[in-house]
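Discussion board: Methods & Data

I've been asked by a reviewer to show the raw model output for two of the constructs in my manuscript, not just the figures. I'm not sure how much to include, so I'm pasting the format here to get opinions. Each protein appears as its amino acid sequence followed by a line of C-alpha cells. Is this the kind of thing reviewers expect to see in a supplement, or should I convert it first? Here is construct A:
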Amino acid sequence: MEKNTSPVQRHQVLFHGKAGEYFSIWLVNALLTMITLGIYSAWATVRRRRYFYGNTEISGDRFDYHARPIDILKGRIIVFVGLVLFFILSATLPFITLVFMLAFLALIPWLVIRSWRYNAIMSSFRGIRFNYHCRIGRAYWVMYLAPILLIISAYMIMGWFAMIASSLSNLNATLIIGGLGVLLFLVALAVVQGIIAAMNHDLYINNMFFGKLAFNADLSKKALIKIVLISFLIMLPFLVITGLLMGSLFVSIIFAFAMGANDPVMMNSLILGNILNIILAFIILMIGGLVASAYLIVAQRNYVFSKTKLGDKLRLKSTLSTGSYLGLMAVNTLIVIFTLGLGTPVAEVRLARYLAEHTELEGDISLLDVEAHNDSANSAVAEEVVAAFDLNPGI
C-alpha cells in the first residue's frame, strides 16, 4: 500500500492595504462624520471595513463586506434614542433606573450573539457568506452563569483560608496560611480566566459557519489555564520589584498610624520623599502588565488557531511571537501619540499587515466545496449596541 507523502499545502494570508491609501479614506471619513454631526459615521464604518476586507487575500481571492450603511445608521439612531430616553427617565424617575439597568444586563448575551451573527452574514469569501448560529441558553450559560459560579468558588477558597488563618493563635502560622491562601486564590483566578476564555472561544468558533460548512475547534481548558498561569508568572517579578520599591513607603505609613501620627503634612512629606520610587513602581507595573498581556494575547491566538478547522480540509495557523507583537504595539502607540491621532490609520494598517503575515491556512483550498446559505440579518441594532458599550467578550 502506497503511503501518501504529499506535503501539506500552506496558504499565506496577504494584506495589500497601504498606509497612505487608507489615510485618505480615514481622513475623509473623519471630516464628513464631523460635518454631518455623526450621520456619515455609518458610511465611514462600511468604507473602513470594505477596505480592510477587500485588501485581505487568501490564495488569490479576497474577502468582502456587504453591510448597508443605512441599516447601520438606523441601528445607531435606535441606540442613541434609547440612551437619551434612559437618561431622561433616570432624571425624572430615578427608581426606574435600576429596572432598566437590570433589563439591559439581562439582554447582553442575546445582543452579543446577534452582533456576531450580523457581522458573519455581512462577510463573504469567494462569494460565499459566513454565518453564525447559537442557542441562546448556551450563550447565557457561558457569559453569565458559569463565570459567576467559578468566581464564587474562587472567593470561597479565599474565605476558607482566611477563616483558618484568623482562628490560629500563632502569628507565623497565620502568615503562612494567609500567604498560601493568597497564592491559591491567584491560581484559582488563573483557572477561572482560562476556563472562561476556553468557553468563550468555543461559543464563537463552534457556532460559526462558512456557507453551510462548520468551523470546529477542540479546545482544551487545561491548555488555556496554563497560558493564563504563565502570564501571571511573567507578571510576578514586576510585582515583586514594585513591592520592594513601595515597601518602605507602606511600612512608614503603617508605622506612623500605629504611633497615632496622622498629620497630613507628615503624610505628604512621606509621599514626596518617595516620589521617585512611586514613579518607578508605576512604570515597572505598566511594563509588566503590557508584557504579560501581550504574551496572553499571542499565546491564546496561536493555540486557538492551531485547534480551529474548517470542515475536514482546512486548518488555521497563527505564528505570532510575544516580542514582535509587543514591539509592534509599542511603535503603534508612539505613532498615534506623537502624531496627535493622525497616525491612527498608519497604526491600523501596520497591525492588519502584521496579523496577516503571521496567519496561514493549511490544506487544499481548491477542494473546498461549500454550499451557500440563504439566511439574512438586516438589523444592525445589536451590532451597534455591542460596539457602543464594548460588550464583545474578548473574542
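Construct B, same format:
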Amino acid sequence: MIADRIDPAAVPPHHRSNASVFIADAAVTLRRALVARHGLERGCEAAAEAVAWAWEHLDDLETMANPIGYLYRVAQSSLRRGYRIDRLRVDLLPDGVIHDAHHVDHDLFDALRRLTPDQRVAVVMVHMYGFTYRDVAGLVGTSEAAVTNYVHRGMTRLRTLLDRKDLS
C-alpha cells in the first residue's frame, strides 16, 4: 500500500507539525466519506492513497482553497484506476461484524446500501458524523443545494425502506 511507503519524518520540519494535524484530520474525514460511498475495503484503500498523495504534495495542498475536497477527488481518481466489476457491492461493515454484533441495526445497514452513493455519503456525513451541508458540499465537490437534495431524498428513502422492511 502506498501509505506504508510514506515516512512523515522525511517531511521538512517546518511542514511537519501543521501538516501532521491537517493530514490526520483529513484522513478521518476522507475515510468516513469514502467508506460511505464505496464500502469499507475500497473506501479505506482510497483514503490511504489520498493521504499518501497529501504527504508527497504538501506544498501544493497549502496553496489550495479546498485541500480536503481535492484529496477526496484524488481518492476518487485512485478508485477509478483500480475499478473492477466484481467490486460493485458496497460493504459498509465486514460480514463477520454485521452478523455477530447484536448492537448493529442490520436493517439500517441494508437500507443504506440501497441508497445511491451520493445520497449515502450525504446522509452518513450529515446525520452520523454531524457535518454541515456546506462541509459535505465542499468535500464532495458539489453545491450545498445538491447535498440538501441528497439528504432529503436519502432520508425519505430510508424511512420508506425501514417502515416496509423491504430490504431484500
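Answer (T.O., handling editor elsewhere):
This is acceptable in a supplement if you add a one-line summary per construct. For B, something like: The CA atoms of residues 51 and 57 lie 10 Å apart.
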